[in-house]
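Write out structure tokens for Sulfate transporter.
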Amino acid sequence: MDCAKAQIHVHARSTATVLRIDGEVDAANTDLLADIIRRFARLRAPLILDLTALDFLAGSGLRALLDLNEEHRVAQLRCSIVSGAALRRITRVLPDHGLPIADSVDAALAHIEGATTARRRLVSGPARQHEPQHDAATRLRGLAS
């Protein structure tokens, strides 16, 4: 997708959707890029923003990343950002940015996969714990009759 001075390349993976953003993000195209990213977030699937090939990131682009990260957090959607030189230039100055940064797309995918697996275990854990109790209650009823 062409977004003025930037391009978005979409890669669907089994674990997440990867959006690679190339080119430049500035005040002229930040809102357009953020809107496109929000469209993918509506899929309710984990999202990885790959900024490794980004040449320039303006302050408006960082603000959009911070806003998108907060939206994902509130919606309980997993999101990760693979940093590149353009983002590192800004985050060196603002080290406490709070963005979920990954070293690579593979690392981001592994993190999301691990978090998803842990969540599944957490959700299915209580259900498994009740099964033995149910069996014991059934046996006690059988003894009582």
